[in-house]
């Protein structure tokens, strides 16, 4: 019972603030949570850069091809970071939640939930970076098959992006077309 | 000051829970990226087997996708067909 009392006291303390204050505070937390996604592209592109350096060292004659594959793959790996950045910027500069009607607790929690959802970007970021690194390695080994290697790499990266897109959809639903408000 | 209703609390927690469910997507993202990397490596080694390599890679990716889909389904249920508010 002690714990339950604490939660109720906490919620009462939350509700003692103005409606706008609560939603804006939650949006700030949500924007921060969304940017955690940056871990993924960071790790992935770092791996790709390392593999690219290794590939150029292995076959300096194919350095151009390997670097090109690495940059292309790293650009794809950046996608999740950009999507998270967009959600964070929407929460900060074009906050759609502040004007919505409905229970303030649900709206504030939706802002946090949208941010948490975007953390998913870690996965595609790491995975696509790994693909970029392996692509650079393969291009250095067989530069004449660069286009085939790029095709296989991009196809796999597109599949790896899918969960990031799901997360983006959930975040956008929570921000722009919140179905929970209608349940109140 | 709005009063706290039980329903609001459940719906608020549902919003956070939907976000948490989507974190599951990290796994398929990493795994499928690994598969894509190995696929690109294999095509570079045996370009004539490109079709077979890509087919196996996509099959594996489809299996790796499953947990991400589970997370998405739970998030969509929490948002659009919330079973918890009906229990009140």
What does this structure look like?
The complex is a heterodimer of chains A (184) and B (88). Chain A is mainly alpha-helical and 184 residues long. Chain A has helices at 2-15, 19-35, 39-58, 63-77, 79-93, 104-118, 122-141, 146-160, 162-176, 180-183. Chain A has a single domain, classed as lithium bound rotor ring of v- atpase (Four Helix Bundle (Hemerythrin (Met), subunit A)), CATH 1.20.120.610. Chain A starts with a helix and ends with a helix. Chain B is built from 3 helices and no strands. Chain B has one domain: F1F0 ATP synthase subunit C (F1FO ATP Synthase). In chain B, helix 2 packs antiparallel against helix 3 (50-80). Chain B starts with 5 loop residues before the first helix and ends in an 8-residue tail after the last helix. With 88 residues, chain B is an all-alpha fold. Classes of the chains: A mainly alpha (184), B mainly alpha (88). At the A-B interface, helix 1, helix 6, helix 7, helix 8 and helix 9 of A face helix 1, helix 2 and helix 3 of B.
What is the overall silhouette of chain B?
Answer: rod-shaped
Helicity level of chain B: over 70%
What share of residues of chain A is helical? over 70%
Strand content of chain B: under 5%
Rg of chain B, nearest Å: 20 Å
CATH architectural label of chain A:
Up-down Bundle
CATH superfamily of chain A: lithium bound rotor ring of v- atpase
* Euclidean distance between termini CA atoms of chain B: 24 Å
Report the CATH topology name of chain A. Answer: Four Helix Bundle (Hemerythrin (Met), subunit A)
From the 3D coordinates, which CATH architecture of chain B would you assign? Up-down Bundle
Record field, number of beta strands of chain A: 0
Strand content of chain A: under 5%
């Amino acid at each position: 019972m002690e714990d339950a009392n604490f939660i109720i006291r906490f919620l009462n303390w939350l509700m003692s603030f103005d409606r706008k204050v609560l939603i804006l505070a939650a949006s700030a937390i949500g924007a921060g949570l969304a940017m955690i996604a940056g871990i993924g592209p960071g790790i992935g592109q770092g791996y790709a850069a390392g593999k690219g350096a290794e590939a150029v060292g292995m076959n300096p004659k194919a350095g151009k091809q390997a670097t090109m594959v690495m940059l292309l793959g790293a650009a794809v790996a950046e996608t999740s970071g950009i999507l998270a950045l967009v959600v964070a910027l929407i929460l900060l500069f074009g906050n759609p939640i502040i004007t919505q009607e409905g229970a303030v607790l649900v709206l504030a929690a939706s802002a946090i939930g949208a941010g948490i959802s975007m953390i998913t970007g870690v996965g595609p970021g790491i995975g696509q970076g790994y693909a970029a690194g392996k692509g650079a390695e393969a291009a250095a080994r067989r530069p004449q098959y660069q286009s085939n290697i790029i095709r296989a790499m991009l196809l796999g990266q597109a599949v790896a992006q899918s969960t990031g897109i799901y997360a983006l959809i959930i975040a956008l639903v929570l921000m722009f077309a919140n179905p929970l408000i209608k349940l109140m | 000051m709005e009063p706290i209703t039980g329903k609001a609390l459940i719906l608020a927690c549902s919003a956070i829970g939907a976000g948490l469910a989507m974190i599951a997507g990290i796994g398929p993202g990493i795994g499928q990226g690994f598969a894509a990397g190995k696929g690109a490596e294999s095509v570079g080694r045996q370009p004539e087997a490109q079709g077979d390599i890509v087919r196996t890679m996509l099959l594996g990716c489809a299996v790796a996708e499953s947990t991400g889909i589970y997370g998405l389904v739970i998030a969509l249920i929490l948002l659009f067909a919330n079973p918890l508010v009906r229990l009140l």
